[in-house]
Amino acid sequence: MQDLRTKSAEALIRLHYRVLDELKGRNIISAAHAPLGEYAEHLFAEAYDWQLSGQIFNAGFDATDKDGARIQIKARRLTGPGSRQLNSIHKLKQNPFDKLAVVLFTPDLAVARAAIIPLDIVKERATYNPNTNSWRFLAEDAVWNLPNVQDATERVRLTAREN
Questions:
Q1: Is 142 exposed, middle or buried (0-12, 13-18, 19+ CB in 10 A)?
Q2: Residue 52's pLDDT is what?
Q3: 5 and 64 share a domain?
Q4: Quick check: 130 pLDDT over 90?
Q5: Are 65 and 47 in contact (CB under 8 A)?
Q6: Residue 141 pLDDT > 90, yes or no?
Q7: Alpha-carbon distance 44 to 134, whole Å?
Q8: Mean pLDDT throughout 117-137?
Q9: Which residues of 24-41 are buried (b: 16+ CB within 10 A; e: fewer)?
Q10: Are strands 70-77 and 63-64 parallel, antiparallel or unpaired?
Q11: Of residues 109, 108, 48, the one with CA closest to residue 73
């Protein structure tokens, strides 16, 4: 592997977009923008045979399972001991999904942890942010120990290795 520290910023940006184009060509992401969320969607859909909504932006849910449950999929890259806050969740009071699927990635994008969390637990633990008119949810380790939370780590990790 190349030592990226020796590359210019211009070369790194070119490489970044070449990688995004390749991921798009393999149908892993649908657009050449920050791919972490779409990669998480792809991993869960492959691991659990979920049907992705096919929309680049859907404020409600990203996939459905075989029983028709609506699933919002969120990802976070853990770059240090900081927050495990996921991207904003909108319209939580309107029940926009039935389950929240979360994957936490290590700094080098290996699957650290993954879980499928029922909506009622998300509602209990999320906090409202009036500045963004949305809810924030922290994917803390304690969440994995809650009743009815499904630890999806090994299944999602295996799917990532196979891709």
A1: exposed
A2: 93
A3: no
A4: yes
A5: no
A6: yes
A7: 24
A8: 97
A9: eeeebbbeeeebbbbbbb
A10: antiparallel
A11: 48
Domain total in the chain: 2
Extract the tokens encoding 140: 């803390």
Beta-strand relationship, 99-105 and 70-77: parallel
Q: 147 is written with which tokens?
A: 């009743």
Tokens 């029922």 -> residue: 118
Q: Are residues 14 and 45 in the same domain?
A: no
Q: What is the CATH number of the domain that holds 98?
A: 3.40.210
If asked whether residues 63 and 93 sit together in one domain, one would say: yes
The verdict on 47 and 89 lying in the same domain is yes
- pLDDT reading at 35 higher than 90: no
What the block records as the tokens of 21 is 């184009």
Q: Verify that 21 and 63 share a domain, yes or no.
A: no
63 in the same domain as 29: no
For residue 63, the enclosing domain spans 35-162
